[in-house]
Amino acid sequence: MRNYRRFCAVLLLLTLLCGCAAEKAVTTVSLPGETNAAAETQSTSALENTAAEPNTEAKAFHLELQRRVPEGINSITACIASDNTIIAGGPSDSGPQLVCFPMEGDKTRTLDVPEDTDYLYALCDDPDGGFFLLSGSLPAGYVDARGNFKFLTGDPEGNLALSRYDENYNLQQTTPLAKTYAEPGARFFQMAKTDGGAALVSASMLVLLDDNGAETARQTIDMNDGWAFASMVESDGTLFVLTRDMFGGDTPELRAFDAKTLTALETQTLPSGTLGLGLDEDGTFLLTDSNALLSFDLTTGKVQTIALWRELGAKTNASQLFRTKNGYVLFSPNEEAVSLVLWKASATNAKKVLTLAIAADCPVWYEFTQLFETFNLSQNDYRIDYTVYSDSPYGDGEPLDVLRTQIMSGESPDLFAFYSDGNQAPPLEPRVVCADLRPLLPDVTETVLLPGLFDLLTQDGTLYALPLTVRVDTLIMPLNLIGSPGVTLSDLATAREKMPDDWVAVDSWNTPKNLFALTAAFCIGRFTDRENGTCNFETQEFYDLLDWCKRWGGNGSTPETPEKTLVKRGWISSLSWLSGREDIAKEWFDGAGYTYAGYPVGSGGSAYLVLTSLGVSASYRDMGGAKALLEYCFSCEQESGLPANMDALRKEFVQYKLGNRTDWYGNPETITDADEAKFMELLNSITVLEGMDKPLEDILCEEADVYFAGGCTAQQAAKNIQSRASLYLQEQYQ
């Protein structure tokens, strides 16, 4: 499933439970139908989502969010819910599996599926009792039993059948559809029973069938314009289809069609950001967006908030919504679990809320939100209320200056999450805003983190942020020219003399300016003492490094044919990078193996860059919740980046060796013992923590650029760097 999530670029929440176990998050709200159940706002044709927060006066009921995972099913492709029973189907190790289970409780029943079925597409209730199943051959793209997204090697067959199950969930009859549906965009994901047949909906078409499986009517949509059908409900002889601009540029629409003829009826504009559609008991529509579960009155245009995701501690991007006796079931095809929003008769939620700021110098993807939401669902004592702060034009949070103002005014959040790609200065310095974590996490030692990482992070005796994921930065060279990590300028000179005549030292695009920028972090580690606020760049070693960058750097061109280069850069942020690395290196280096040579600064070395990390506010005193969150996140598998947790890295290696990791297309990725050993040798050679002082790196690069442009000597550049760096270090560290 991890590859499906990456492929689709959608938020799919991680689940740590097996079978039909449930994870919980609670919030206190009003019971539907009671006085002041929710504030109402008027919808217009261009309505933004302005639904009011529900009334939170003390009631004997609260809403609780759970995830339910059907036993044996890795990803759910079809689902319905009614009368507090869920029916779900999807791939399993034994083939397509269909199960039913209660919304609360552990009893699961496996149901029969039609013979020669490869895939379960959709389910719907039968008004006369029981339900219908749409099944058939595999679609062009699908998720297998292990959660890996795959494409068919050939064209899909498009053979489908409609099966009826009675009120006891026994298979009664299967009717093959009269025609095949193999064209692009024809993968049906939802259906509804109509008077005299059934309606099927895919991203590009709405199809009406009679009881014999023959198509009687069709409506299509041109997906080239970005619009697609997303969800469907039937009500009083009318099919209502949620239609979305998949690029998010236009307001979603509720398109209506006659359920007997598919004649197009009125189209209603929906609240901006609508993601899912369903029907409530009173005939009003259920909607979801990124903030809440809503009700929508088509006649009046009024919107009511049923539940705020923020109050529940997690959110869902479900497209199909069902009302049951005790709450709501929310589902999207190919998710690992169904989401339940249940009414619970109990006192108000006793969870303690911890505020957390995500401080990012680049867009924050899903790593943090997945971690925090699964944490909220996993336990009963605490809930993380997080806010994203970023100045990135692609971000969707508050500006970082808002966070800085809060901290300066004494309103710091309880916790911090830091995210950096190393290209910009960190938006906040953990050593400035965070407390020392070593008293809180005494078990986090040099043996718990990746080799050398603990010492690099605790050079002043403190640990201000717990690393979750890292990237390794190194230079890669042919094994026959450089035998082990730790390359020097002398080693490089010797290797260049021995390289083939048709090779170049570095890629032509890698100018002296670029080449020096790669070494800047290593220069800081080599020529500065940040603990004491001093530096010494006026040395022959530094002059030689500047000279090497100028002589070896390329001219900035991009040749039409690929170049054979002596030095390759390695940015390693996933173990998948190691898969087949020996064979790849042989293509790079004309049959030779490879060495993680490192950078030629001092005795040579490679670097860690901390991608994601967590810290605790220096002013925060209740450490119970902080410790629970940090330990939870540190133990979880990460979606991207190398785990900073050494034990997690070992487990990842095992999965690759067992063949349980695949690429984007479902092809197995494996790592050899030799590649693993070579990578561990690399980790043990790392001497530098990259990205810890980006302003200082910028000083070095600015003055070095003058030398590369011919504006001064290497000695003068070093002198200018010494002057500016000394002043900076005195201001920042003394």
Structural class: alpha+beta
In CATH terms, the superfamily of the largest domain is TolB, C-terminal domain
State the helicity in percent bands. 10-25%
Unreliable segments of 5+ consecutive residues: 1-21, 26-59
Assess the beta-strand content as a share of residues: 25-35%
Give the count of helical stretches: 15
Walk across the major sheet and give the strand order: 1-3-28-27-26-22-23-24-25-2
Shape: globular
Could you name the CATH class of the largest domain? Answer: Mainly Beta
Computed over alpha carbons, the radius of gyration is: 29 Å
Quaternary structure: single chain
- Total domain count: 3
What is the CATH architecture annotation of the largest domain?
6 Propeller
Mean pLDDT: 86
Examine the coordinates and then state which fold CATH places here, giving the name of the CATH topology of the largest domain: Neuraminidase
**Distance between termini?**
50 Å
Main sheet overview: 10 strands, mixed
Number of strands: 41
